[in-house]
Amino acid sequence: MADVAAVPVPRSTGLAPTVLGGIGRVVEHHWRWYRRNWRATAVSTVLQPLLFLLAFGVGFGALVGSGPNAAAATGGVPYLVWLAPALLAMSAAQSAAFESTYPVLSGFKWQRIYLAMAAGPLTGAQIGLGVLGWIGLKMLGAGAVYVLVIAAFGGVTGPGIVVSLLAAVLTGLAVSSLVAAFSATVENEGTAFSALFRFVVIPMTLFSGTFFPVDRLPAVIRPLAWVSPLWHGTEIARGAALGTWRLLPTLGHLAVLLALLVLGATLVARLFTRRLAA
C-alpha cells in the first residue's frame, strides 16, 4: 500500500489568545461565513439604502424647489447632495441595529455559536467585542459601496465624503454597542425587538435631521433629536461632505458618539461575560 503524504496538522500552543487576538478570531469567524453567504445580506446592506436614495434623493428631491426656503434648509446645495451623507449615516445605524438584535440572540440561543466559542479559550468580553468589530468592518464595506452609488447619482461633491463614511461607521458602532448589550439580556425574543425597532429605531431615523433640518421640528420635539446618536453622526457626516462643519460643534458630536460607544462596549463585555458564564 502506497505511503500517503503526511498532512501537517496545526497543534495548539495551549496558550489563551491575547485580548486583540481573541477579538480577531471572532471577526475571522464572521468573515469566513460572510464571504460564502454575502448574498443573503445584500438586500439589507446595499439595496435598501439604494432604494432610500432613489425614493428621497432622486424622487422626492425633484419636488424640492430652489426657492429661498429650500436654499435655507439645504444650505444652497441640491437636495440630493444635502441628503446623501445623512443617508450614509442612517443606513449604517439601521444596519447596525439589525445586526445587533436577531443575530446576537441567535448566537446565544438558537445557533449557540457564542457558547461554542466560550467553550474554547475565548472570553465573553472577547466574543462581544469581536461581534462589534465585525459589525464595524461590515458597515465600512457596505458604506464604501454606497458611496460609489451616491457618486454615480451625483451626490458627491468632494473628498469630504470619506470622512462622512468614517462618521457613519462610528455612528453605527455607537448604535450597535448599545443594541447588542440589550440583546444580550433578551431571553425570549417575543416583542422586545419589535418594540425596539418601532419605538426607537424608526423614530430615530425620521427625526434625526436625515430628511429635513431638526430646526424645522416643533421646539418641544427637538431635544429628542439631540439625544439621538444618528443626529450627531448626521451632523458630522453632512458637515464633512459639504465642507460646512465647525470645530467646536463637531468635537461635541464626536465626543457624544465616542462616549456612547465606550459605554455600549463596556456593557457588551460585561453582559456577554455574564450570560456565557450562566
TrEMBL record:
Entry coiled-coil feature ranges: none
Keywords on record: Antibiotic resistance, Cell membrane, Membrane, Transmembrane, Transmembrane helix, Transport
Keyword Membrane: yes
Family listed: Belongs to the ABC-2 integral membrane protein family.
Superkingdom field: Bacteria
Domain ABC transmembrane type-2 per the UniProt entry, residue ranges: 40-275
Topology relative to the membrane: Multi-pass membrane protein
Name of the protein in question: Transport permease protein
Keyword flag Protease: no
Membrane-traversing stretches: 46-64, 76-93, 113-132, 139-156, 162-183, 195-214, 251-272
Subcellular location as annotated: Cell membrane; Membrane
InterPro entries in the cross-refs: ABC2_TM, ABC2_TM_bact-type, ABC_2_transport, Nod_factor_ABC_transporter
Alphabetized PROSITE patterns for the sequence: ABC_TM2
